[in-house]
Specification:
single chain, about 375 residues, alpha/beta, Rossmann fold, formyl-coa transferase, domain 3, six-stranded parallel β-sheet, 15 helices, about 35% helix, CoA-transferase_III_domain, CoA-Trfase_fam_III, CoA transferase, transferase activity, transferase
């Protein structure tokens, strides 16, 4: 921390005028890996500065979690002076990252066609709700609304319950990841052509892209997928189960793992019963299999069982809360916690590079310009 960037994106300059989540998350990833990211906020600041409590020095945790490794300033792009300053900043920039409503930058004379003619090497990345055209083109999109209309909520929740929002902004975050991928693809192509291009990551597209295996199942059998609670729709046992202590999640993906599980539970013959002898049978007879496993697991200690199964190659885990997950020794070992002297604590980068790892140089911009 506090060292000069040596990341894989060292020398790449990003002007980040995005707000809320998808765009800022993209900008943070680029910054973690060495890009010089300048976050430009409107005069009132990014809305997420107020999305608390909790707060650190008056800034909400929500904002702090998405905006490290960025320098900061404020500009009023609705005014000519602000737009002129942005154009000056873009003169030596590699990437413009924004999530303005389609037509806003165009109205200000800062659309892609104008910028690409003035800055032919610039990569212009837009995070949008639905894209610019089509039946929903240009409309605003938020994570929860996209979860609702992309089908995600319809397959999330208990089988006998209502559709349920995934408990984190999965669409916004995967859209941010897709924006990073698009930017990196465009940077790579620019080494050959010398030209920038327009990159768009839309929440709607990203939400649909998350529908595996539900979409793949529907393409094949034309059956509308339903909610299955914690259970996997295609394989079993891939579900949560009660134990004598804490709940356990079993993720048994093949016959070998199922044989090991049955032996560990003191019921090796279960693996050879006709209704459970192969993956298709176990999935088709999941109700009966679940009853048998619940009975076998009720006397087990979750921690010792997971240790035993993991050691033998069966994916499983005790179900932890957020505090337990963040305090787990492996979280620290994997360098997934970042602590800075100003009191900032955040999640580390999950992307590990051997020669050019992520670095954490700047806390999120405070309330003062620069």
């Amino acid at each position: 921390m506090g060292t000069i960037s040596t990341g894989s994106l060292q020398g790449i300059k990003v002007i980040d005028v995005s707000r809320i989540l998808g765009g800022p998350y993209c900008g943070q990833i680029l910054g973690d890996h060495g890009a010089d990211v300048l976050k430009i906020e409107p005069p009132q600041g990014d809305d997420t500065r107020t999305w608390g409590p909790p707060f650190l020095n008056g800034v909400a945790s929500y904002y702090l979690g998405l905006n490290r490794n960025k320098r900061g300033m404020r500009l009023d792009l609705s005014e000519p002076e602000g737009r002129d300053e942005l154009l000056a900043l873009l003169a030596d920039a590699d990437v413009l990252l924004e999530n303005f409503k389609t037509g806003t930058l165009e109205k200000w004379g800062l659309g892609y066609e104008v910028l690409s003619e003035r800055f032919p090497r610039l990569i212009h990345c837009r995070v949008s709700g639905f894209g610019a055209d089509g039946p929903l083109g240009g409309l605003p999109g938020y994570d929860a609304a996209i979860q609702a209309m992309s089908g995600i909520m319809s397959v999330n929740g208990e089988a006998d319950g209502d559709p349920l929002r995934v408990g984190l902004p999965v669409v916004d975050m995967v859209t941010g990841l897709n924006a990073v991928i698009g930017i990196l693809l465009a940077l790579n192509e620019r080494t050959r052509s010398g030209k920038g291009q327009f990159v768009e990551a839309a929440l709607y597209d990203s939400g649909l892209s998350l529908l595996h295996p539900h979409a793949a199942n529907w393409f094949l059998n034309d059956k509308t997928p339903s909610r299955t609670g914690n259970a996997h729709p295609n394989i079993y046992p891939y579900d949560s189960f009660p134990t004598r202590t804490t709940p356990i999640y079993l993720a048994v993906g093949n016959d070998r793992q199922f044989h090991i599980l049955c032996k560990a539970l003191g019921a090796p013959d279960l693996a050879f019963e006709s209704g459970f002898a192969d993956a298709g049978s176990r999935s088709a007879n999941r109700g009966l299999l679940r009853d048998k496993l619940v009975a076998l697991l009720k006397g087990c200690d979750s921690e010792s069982l997971t240790e035993q199964l993991l050691a033998k190659g069966v994916p499983c885990a005790a179900i932890l809360d957020v505090k337990q997950a963040l305090e787990h020794p492996h979280t620290e070992h994997r360098e997934m916690l970042v602590r800075m002297p100003n009191g900032y604590t955040g999640l580390g980068s999950p992307i590990k590079l051997s020669r050019t790892p992520a670095t954490y140089r700047l806390p999120p911009p405070d309330n003062i310009d620069g």
